[in-house]
Write a structure and sequence with these properties.
The chain has about 325 residues and is α/β, with parallel strands linked by helices. Helices cover about 45% and strands about 15% of the residues. It has a single domain, classed as Alpha-Beta Barrel (TIM Barrel), CATH 3.20.20. It has helices at about 15-35, 55-65, 85-95, 110-115, 130-140, 165-175, 185-200, 220-235, 255-265, 275-285, 300-315, and strands at about 1-5, 40, 70-75, 75, 100-105, 155-160, 175-180, 205-210, 210-215, 270, 290-295. The strands form 2 sheets. It has an 8-stranded parallel β-barrel, surrounded by 5 helices. Strands 9-10 form a two-stranded parallel sheet. α5 packs parallel to α6 (about 165-175) and α8 packs across α9 (about 255-265).
Length: about 325
């Protein structure tokens, strides 16, 4: 088992952006001290749900602030990048960090991202698999590209995707998938079954982002629902025309932010140490997950975030030492 921390840098976590990014750095250093395996940084543009517009820049900063913990992107929005420039930057981080960097790719889908950055909507259709395939080709054959990766044949790549082309690309190249924290367990299992059909005998550990909070307060789940509702509302921008709605109910119908928050809070792992251990074990058995990134920041409160991060490391992770 490998446990990491998802760092989203939501605006609600501080009175100012400086407070938010100070909390990001504090979590990263504490996570390393407590023995977490990795950190995963998100990327968002023009929304308060997450105020980090460059996962690569934040990853570089955190790699410089730490010494042993791995740092990955969850994700780089590949339609907004040139593949050659991304290959250079990812290889540079791989070199400078001593091989601790991991590259996660996704395509986002908010219309404003594409419009403000002058990116054609059609790029969405070919991502993130298009960039992943280009990176693999560049690192395998472009001898002009400097620096080459330190990790052979390339830094670990994972894709946040559920499209047929994306899943096929990941499966045929042995790349892991990344699961969104709000995705129900059953949907994760179904996606990995599609992956395995294309992958054959290839086995990889996919990244599962989850909400798992050590919080025994009677109102903990209600507070989580309120925090999620606020987050979803602040991140609810119109999508590019061809992008499906991400926030769907069990019957496939779109949910408003409040309803989505109630659903996600209802399926979140939250409670005493014993309850978190039991429910996390059930999740791992159901999904087969062996790599988890915990979204402690979902609490919407900086002190509860830090307390949960510490309690999870001290009391929950040791229970899975033999998994």
């Amino acid at each position: 088992m490998r446990f990491g921390v998802l760092l989203n840098a939501g605006a609600v976590l501080g009175a100012t952006p400086a407070d938010v990014f100070d909390l990001t750095a504090r979590q990263a250093e504490l996570a390393e001290d407590l023995g977490y395996d990795d950190l995963w940084v998100t990327e968002h543009h023009f929304i308060r749900f997450g105020i980090n517009p460059s996962s690569l820049t934040t990853a570089a900063f955190l790699l410089g602030r730490t010494r042993t913990i791995r740092v990955g992107t969850s994700v780089v929005l590949s339609p907004l990048c040139h593949p050659v420039e991304l290959a250079e930057r990812a290889a540079l981080l791989d070199q400078l960090s001593g091989g601790r960097f991991e590259l996660g790719l996704g395509r986002g889908g908010y219309r404003k991202d594409y419009e403000r950055l002058d990116i054609d909507f059609t790029r969405w259709d070919d991502e993130p698999h298009g960039t992943a395939e280009r990176l693999l080709d560049l690192w395998a054959s472009d001898t002009d590209l400097q620096p080459p990766p330190r990790t052979g044949p390339h830094p670990p790549i994972s894709l946040a995707t559920s499209s047929d082309a994306g899943v096929k690309c990941a499966a045929t190249n042995g790349l892991a998938l990344q699961h969104y924290f709000a995705t129900p367990a059953a949907a994760r299992v179904a996606l990995e079954q599609r992956y395995q059909q294309a992958a054959g005998d290839t086995q990889v550990d996919h990244l599962h982002t989850v909400i798992a909070l050590v919080d025994e307060a009677p109102d903990a789940r209600d507070r989580l629902a309120a925090a999620l509702s606020n987050s979803f509302r602040e991140g609810n921008h119109p999508h590019v025309p061809q992008a499906p709605e991400r926030h769907l109910g069990p019957d496939g119908t779109p949910l408003d932010p409040d309803a989505m928050a109630q659903m996600v809070a209802g399926q979140a792992i939250i409670g005493s140490v014993g309850r978190v251990v039991d429910e996390l074990a059930d999740f791992l058995l159901h999904t087969g997950a062996r790599r988890v990134a915990v979204y402690h920041e979902a609490s919407g409160d900086p002190e509860r975030t830090v307390r949960s991060l510490r309690d999870f490391a001290d009391h929950v992770i040791p229970q899975f030492a033999q998994w």
